[in-house]
Amino acid sequence: IRTSPGNGSVTLTTLGIHCTASLGKTSHLFLRRNEKRMHFDGANFIVRNAGHSAGFNENNLLIVY
């Protein structure tokens, strides 16, 4: 676990998970486990798995990539 109170961020890395979160200028939550990923930046929520992506945009519309 790494934290940075100056910019409001935290990183957690284990053998199976990598997670970052920040409340600074680029607020976000990112979580990765193998090929599975989740990202939220305060406006968009996206989940990725094995080359497929889907999520909600800033207008709460479901987007499939």
TrEMBL record:
GO cellular component: extracellular space
Source taxon at top rank: Eukaryota
Protein name: Uncharacterized protein
Species: Drosophila navojoa (Fruit fly)
Lineage per the UniProt record: Eukaryota, Metazoa, Ecdysozoa, Arthropoda, Hexapoda
